[in-house]
Amino acid sequence: MIVVKKVLNSSVVLVEKEGQEMITLGKGIGYDKKIGDIISDSSVDKIFLPIEAKKSSQFAELVAEIPMEFFEITKEIVTIAEEELSYKLNTSIYLTLSDHLHFAVERSEKGLNISNRLYWEIKNYYPKEFHIGEVALEQMKTKHQIELPNEEASNIAFHLINAQSGNLEDQDGLKKAKLVGTIVNMVRYSLGQEIDTNSVHYSRFITHVRFFVDRFFTNALLQEKEDELYRQMWSLYPVAMESATKVKNYIDQTYHTQIPENEIVYLGVHINRLMNHSAIDTN
User: Fold this and answer.
1) What's the total number of domains in the chain?
2) One domain for residues 39 and 135
3) Which helix or strand (DSSP H or E) is residue 22 part of?
4) Cys-Cys crosslink for 98: which of 2, 32, 70, 160, Cβ 3.0 to 4.6 Å?
5) What's the predicted TM-score (pTM) here?
């Protein structure tokens, strides 16, 4: 039995199914529904995303912010992938890939192209996943009239690869968590304003910082330079880039390394997004 706990919009509903809180997505699934109503398990083609009860509201808000079309696209990609790869993917991909595609479209519309420096490795070492990414891009173009750069095939493949792994705890979790916390605090301090830590945008920013830290500790940082994009970011978003540069300087000095410009650009993009969407006006 699927019981409605909260209706976010006509396509996103927080429900309880067999004692587990879930986000349910489907066209019209929330229409004319209220708390306590029963949703038929077979009446609508749905996506279920299991979540922790204590994070349900925040998670639901994040899901509701992403246009339903991107979840539909992700579901199409997952269906193709599971048929081609012959195994089930982690349901977390419905959020991570949908969010990525939504953000990729936003970047494309603004003329910001962030290269995937693992393109060659993914294309050559994960040919099946890369091919699915290519098929997905073509399907997005013909079926949804959404055109993204060919490089996005490797990004889609990257999400498919991540969704194949389990949820094992990382032995380096403590040092990663420490660096994530340091970066986040540096950004909050350097911006000179309070940040709404309960917002979905803050949660998204944390996710991207975690990805950066993972790349850092696995020696997989984006190495090649893109001077034009770097200059463009400084011109468009100087405050965010200054904050990202402070993070770079800290890591360079603390870990005796050199963070590449591409990583500064990528971090700057997400800092700017956090500033635009999640800052609390304290004046």
Assistant:
1) 3
2) no
3) strand 20-25
4) 70
5) 0.62
